[in-house]
Amino acid sequence: MRFLVVEEDEAQAHQIKVALTEQGYVVDVVIDGEQGWAYVETFTYDLLLINTSLRDLDGIDLCRCLRNEGYRVPILLLTVQNSSIDQVSYLEAGADDHLVKPFTRTELFARIRALLRSPSRANAPLLHWNDLHLDPVSREVTYRQKPLSLSPKEYSLLELFLRNPKRVLTQSAILEHLWSFESQPNEHTVRAHVKRLRRKLQSVNAEKIIETVYGVGYRLKPPSPELSKQQADIAPAESPETPAELLSVKSAADVSQGSIAPSRDLPASRERFKTIIFNRIQTLEETINNAQTFTSELCENAELQAHKLAGSLGILGLKSAYQLAQNIEQCFIEARQNPQTQSLIDTLKTLIAQLYQELQHPFDEFEEKIPVQSEQESISEQQTSFQVLVVDDDLELTEQLKRIAIHWNIQLNVTTKLEEARVALRETPPHLVLLDLVFPDHQDGGFVLLEELKYQFPELPVLVWTVRDDMSDRAAVARLGGNAFLSKSVSCDQVLEAIKDILQSTSTAPTKILAVDDDPITLNCLQELLPSYGLELTLLDDPRLFWETLEKTGPDLLILDLEMPHFNGVELCKTVRSDRSWNALPILFLSARKDPQTIQQIYQFGADDYISKPFAEAELITRIFNRLDRIHLLRSLAETDPITGLVNRRRSTHDLHRYLHLSRRHCQPFCLVLIALDCFQSINNQYGYTVGDNLMRQFGQILQRQFRDEDIVAHWGGEEFIVGLYGSYQSDVAKRITQLLELVQMTVFPVANHVQIQMTMSAGIAAYPEDGMDLSSLYAASNAALYQAKAAGGNCFFTPSSYSRSTV
């Protein structure tokens, strides 16, 4: 396991590191909160030990920031303060436990073991894999009751595999988890330790525990069928909050149960696709029987049919039939050179007969429909609305909150009685509960309901909003698992901001994949497999609709088949790579062809990766996530503004051009809004650029909350922000900008050293096609309107068509 120690006392930090290292843990040490934050963002840890007194960003603030970002790894605070008020502040900040200095090694180890034994982790402390047992408490390893002597690093490596029993671990993931930042070696060291661990296992006749997934990493070998049920019963339960799930192994995949087929229900899939398979065989049989000679055109068509047949049979796990289809394909390749060979015809007839015999098992009739992207589909205007249950008898206040919540895309369901709330929770579980503590018929009714929620809905976030604001109430809410505590003296916008922060910390946008293949069997297999990994999949079986589908879906990764009618995969790949808007899109090829010439051609024309059909589930998923991880890292570095966290000018320009193109094609409205902060330079001059940057960041967060997820919100430099709204008319956008003006004017921005600033903004709105037909003309029009707004004194917006002032 890997720990991070954030301690400014270097002598004490060294002592803690030595003590933990002697226990077999990997330890990184930093001396201030800013460094701690950077390390947490970069590396994966199983436990954080943080001193409360740090320079720049103190330990309590660091803990609170991590929890606000959804970081769930256990945190142990090290402190010299132990009053009841201090203890409450530690709990409210999100710490799991605290340890008062000075402390002994024994006490430190006991607290750590208690945190690592928390219920959110594996249900059983003993880790198993077949006859191999590892006890994390005693650090003993046995195989069939025989003790196994391992070095600390070998033990940690084996523990890592056992805590991730259904994962493929890359060498980089192993390095990150088992070595500290200062002493991180190269990947040759990983291979050496795996080799030594295998030798140790072999010495007790446990020869086949760890296997290599070539080109990817290592995994535990799947148990034999007779042991599968037993293994499932004793394997550690996986939880999204365990360190195993927090490893940087998004590329890890569930172990494929078959050697070649990822379909989860192979017999059912074989039965369903009988028509397609037998039609292809009959087409090949007719070609062979009717052909006097094998012309080049005939061979090419037959070769394509055999190629598709082989891929389909392989996907369905029919290994013998797959090999026969490959032999048929090879025969047609040979027939191009020698079209008159009677022996080749006889060989093909024999292979067809053998194929029929192999597939002689009965198939049930069926009709399988694959969901394919429709040409008429357009960008969805719908945005997922968060459902919040409000339990509060103050009707006037809750009605005011409901009116404002509409603009935050939050739907409130208000109940005024505790019993009504219990019924609502059972019938329609919300995303979050907003709870008052005081009710006329029960002064402590809110606490009672909060305790019920803790046990009945442990994963449901609860935000307490009440007039009771003493320390005992805050401590009780923290003890009962409340996510946040707000006094009713705060504004409705602050309440909604807290709700959105809690909800967004646990929700992420799905990764979108577009798969193009004319083989419905392959598409069906992908449909069964990929969504279970949280991937949003669009399937396309007609390459002629490729470009329209690409622009409408905006995928994060593209999966292409090599051989398709009308346009093959290489042609589609070349088209993508030649377009400035899409040339960085990751492309993964699936093909039954394995010859070096074909593979070289695929990479030559821009493919990022290649997997041969039939493919193993683990290999496909691992390669997809590896590719996505790399592209996301590069995009975040190249496309994110470092000050505001919004997309930068380069990325937003690409997205704006795409929206304008869709507006022209589908005759949809589009608006471009240019926004600037009023008198921003004077703020920089008075308070400094650090305060100015902090202000820009907070303003960027307001813009993100006020606009839809599909709207483009970007920082173009200086005080200039830009918003692109597809499908919105100028009148609707004007209303939203008016609301934004009011919100900014009422907001007090805390920046630094108890300094609070109030400010205003100005905006210019340009609409397509009235004010411009392309991005440059729309920008010029919105910039001219913005100039008019600033000239009018700010805190207003203008439109180019009338330059009529709209102000708050």
Describe, in plain words, how this protein is organized in 3D.
With 808 residues, the protein is an alpha/beta fold. The chain folds into 6 domains: 2-116, Rossmann fold; 127-246, Orthogonal Bundle (Arc Repressor Mutant, subunit A), CATH 1.10.10.10; 266-358, Four Helix Bundle (Hemerythrin (Met), subunit A) (Up-down Bundle); 386-504, Rossmann fold; 511-637, Rossmann fold, CATH 3.40.50; 649-807, Alpha-Beta Plaits. Helices cover 47% and strands 17% of the residues. The protein is built from 30 helices and 29 strands. It has a 6-stranded mixed beta sheet with strand order 23-24-22-27-28-29, sandwiched between helices. Strands 2-1-3-4-5 form a 5-stranded parallel beta sheet, sandwiched between helices. The chain has a 5-stranded parallel beta sheet with strand order 13-12-14-15-16, sandwiched between helices. Strand 19, helix 23 and strand 20 (587-591) form a beta-alpha-beta unit. Helix 4 crosses helix 19, helix 6 (152-163) packs across helix 8 and helix 27 packs across helix 28. The longest helix has 23 residues, at 617-639. The protein is globular and about 95 Å long.
